[in-house]
Amino acid sequence: MEQESYVNDKPFNPPFTHKNRSSKCLVYILILVVFLSISFLISWRVLLKIKTPTLQLSTVNIEHLYYDSSSLNMTIVGKIDLHNPNFGPFKFFGGPMTLLRDIGLGLIKLGSFAEVTGEVRVVKIIHRHVSAVMDCSMDLNLKSQGIQDLLCR
Membrane-spanning regions, if any (predicted)? Predict the structure, then answer.
């Protein structure tokens, strides 16, 4: 038969029993699981949110400009930058580019519009079709044969 321990005429119970330890351990494990789940969900929403890539016309050069009162002939060389803010690749299929002109006195207003469609793949799980659009306006100065006031939206 087991004998109970007494302290000051009261039964002595040790402060930590196996039952107390196992319940505290379970609570700590549950807190850890909840914390990791919340941090995983936040990371998943932030990192894997698909954003639209952007197109930007960064430089424009005019080559071989010839004009008279009835005609205009030139070669326009431009650099278009594609910025992909996603954590996965953007595979694009190309797209049309349109150049519009409006002739004034000494200045020709040019406008360009381009659209590139493609697919963004994030972590090889999420695939989404997106389009990057560029809409720019600029002025061609016939005297200096250069581009001025390049503005892209």
Answer: 26-48
**Burial class of residue 95 in the structure, from the number of CB atoms within 10 Å of its CB (0-12 exposed, 13-18 middle, 19+ buried):** middle
pLDDT in tens, 8-59: 666 655 565 556 667 788 889 999 999 999 998 888 777 778 889 999 888 8
Residue 1 included in any domain:
no
DSSP state of 105: S
DSSP 144: T
Maximum separation of any 2 CA atoms in the chain, in Å: 120
Residue 21, in any domain of the structure = yes
Residue 145: which of 93, 71, 91, 67 has the closest Cα? Answer: 67
